[in-house]
């Protein structure tokens, strides 16, 4: 485990850069993490991140489908907001664990 | 008279009906089981039909043959369940009331969920092998296939039998080599996962195997649509994969009545306690097998192990006792890695598939995550055990809980 500083706050992250405690997260911290991912956060991004954090807090699994049906973005727009690997990037910026798949 | 209704007479429903009928006195318990179709299919056998290794008659038997005496069998589509009033409405007009309900209606493919998938090329150059019809039609298409791109694709997770598309790819490689046309065919394997499989050790070993067999892995590929006119897959991030023959695992969803009844999540899986197998919302509802949203494989072995736990907890529940039997998510899957060769994985909620040995009585020990002929024979021998032991609720020589015995850890 290592520590990184985002928006002046020290945050514990794992070796892939995912937060180990999601409670420290703020939108300001998210902006700093997003910059590392090459993303300039907009209100739309923040709305998606909040949705992801709420789903996760309820213990529900994240999927492209559930985000696509969130009413905030569809799957295509989710890709546009977080290009490349949207679920992984958005999870890291949202301060939650890396999404995992069960076998 | 108490009433138990079991929805679905597949692997799980048939197995639990057999076990509970033996245990519950007929004078006190009426058991009814409902299914929409007359045939019980041995689903692990579908994989072998496209390659002509099995014929359809080897994987189909009448359901009634496996329903024990003393269990009422009704063949009907299920219209709706009302869990607040304990009533099941059937499409044939019957209403069933229950004291306890076991949901075991599994999952089905939903090709219409993906734009273009259920279009003009469906069952022409695009096939599933999760239905008898798809697997049989694919057999014809493969035997006529001469050259070009064979693409194997997973649309979305979770899906039934997570190793099946890999097994299909490995068998296709063997099959095309035997036909002497392997060098005329490019095999591509697209998946939404970052690698060949979900967990690290198995992903590494199976990924290396794909590479060794010249099967090109296309990871992180989420299909947005299937373009029928140009015969290509299009991903959300704009990548395209052209195909001449496409074998696809469509979105897998729970039964439609689950959705109509408001009992499921957005994929019609029923929210279920992953240890007790009781519905999260209704105390008198248990969920067995693929129909549940529990975080383990949707696979026959899982249903078998889960049924042992559900059986115990069901008996506790009807006596008003706490549900102390706990499911560990155990799964045990033979993986065919080519014609005549296979490997084996054994894992649960907490322990990923590890290499080592697996102490299967009589024919074992089997090798985990190693490729040999014995594992292939184990897979093929399982068909007999399925029809004769498993779904009849007879003892299978394998432990319900996963054991670390023989497994190699770092």
Structure notes:
The complex is a heterodimer of chains A (103) and B (410). Chain A is mainly alpha-helical and 103 residues long. Chain A has one domain. Chain A contains five helices and two strands. In chain A, a hairpin with a 2-residue loop joins β1 (2-6) and β2 (9-13). Chain B is an alpha/beta fold and 410 residues long. Chain B has three domains: 2-41 and 61-108 and 253-318, FAD/NAD(P)-binding domain; 111-251, FAD/NAD(P)-binding domain; 331-390, no CATH class. Chain B is built from seven helices and 24 strands. Chain B has helices spanning 11-23, 132-144, 164-178, 200-212, 256-260, 300-318, 373-390, and strands at 2-7, 29-35, 39-41, 60-62, 71-75, 78-82, 87-90, 95-97, 100-103, 107-109, 126-127, 148-154, 185-190, 215-218, 223-227, 232-235, 240-242, 245-249, 252-254, 285-287, 331-338, 341-347, 356-358, 366-368. A five-stranded parallel sheet of chain B has the order 5-2-1-9-20, covered by helices on one side. Chain B has a five-stranded parallel sheet with strand order 11-18-12-13-14. Chain B is globular and about 65 Å long. The A-B interface holds A 60-61, 63-66, 69, 75-76, 78-79, 83-85, 100-103 and B 156-158, 162, 192-194, 197-199, 202, 220, 222, 224, 236-237, 265-267, 295-297, 331, 347, 349, 352-353.
